[in-house]
Fold:
Amino acid sequence: MSYFVGKNFMHNIAICSGNPEELTQLQNIIDDYEEFSNEDFTVKVFPSSEALTLAMKSYRPDILVIDAAGGIETVRNLRRENYTGEIIFTASNGEHALEAFDLEARQYFIRPINPQKFFRTLEKIMPPKKFIIVKQRRNIRKILCDEILYCETNGKHQEIYTFNEKITVRITAREMKKLAPPPLTVILPP
Structure:
């Protein structure tokens, strides 16, 4: 018997602002996007650049959302320390926009933040969804890798277990291994 295991990736997002209302608004926007996109996020909130800087000694978020007032210098220092994560700045005006893009910011939002525009920015940042295409009887199926829990070999058939169903396809474990893109891992019998 052989099988493979699907892995969901958790995206780490840090939000840094001295404004508690903005922290709440951004967290709500990200929660809405998480539900809408079926992505998984871990969000850490920092009330100051100092708190963020201290945390960054052992924490490297994939995405950093930070208030430009006070955040420009923080990001400049993080970039010097080889931080390569995506940066989204927020601001009350465009005063720091040129500096932000010099620091390779993905976006610069002027408050109030439009959730749909924020969603579009996150869409651009997220890696494309990976999938496999299999033939099931007379139908061709596209299965998102994020949906696959595991797969079992049953003779010349593979039973692919997703969150919602079991899909049986006629394919060998070696053929399945060729189809499975990372992060799927196929374990063949010895």
In short: The chain has six helices and twelve strands. The helical segments are 20-37, 49-55, 68-80, 97-102, 115-125, 173-179.
